[in-house]
Write a structure and sequence with these properties.
Length: 94
């Protein structure tokens, strides 16, 4: 050798190079198949989040009317029950 610093390239025999490429490719394919079972597709994952609570504004006039309707219905039901109870007492007394 003329120059000691000169690096000689490593040369493979054509069949050795092809075999190395095939082994490398086979190893890559096996590794991908092995890792496919470990990978998780999170594209449709459910993510918890907080929705801001909207305050429901109730119109006081509508609320007042609704409360009045309920109170009227309760008063009517009470009066009806009292009337029926009085009739039963009158029937028992006779």
């Amino acid at each position: 050798m003329e120059d000691e610093d000169e690096v000689m390239p490593v040369r493979f025999h054509p069949t050795e190079s092809t075999q190395l490429e095939q082994l490398s490719l086979k190893s890559s394919i096996e590794e991908e198949e092995k890792n496919e079972g470990n990978q998780v597709d999170n594209s449709l994952a459910l993510v918890p989040m907080e929705n801001p609570k909207t305050k429901q504004n109730i119109d006081p006039i509508v609320l007042d009317a609704t409360v009045r309707e309920v109170l009227d219905a309760l008063r009517h039901a009470r009066e009806k029950l009292q009337t029926q109870m009085e009739r039963r007492q009158m029937i028992k007394a006779s």
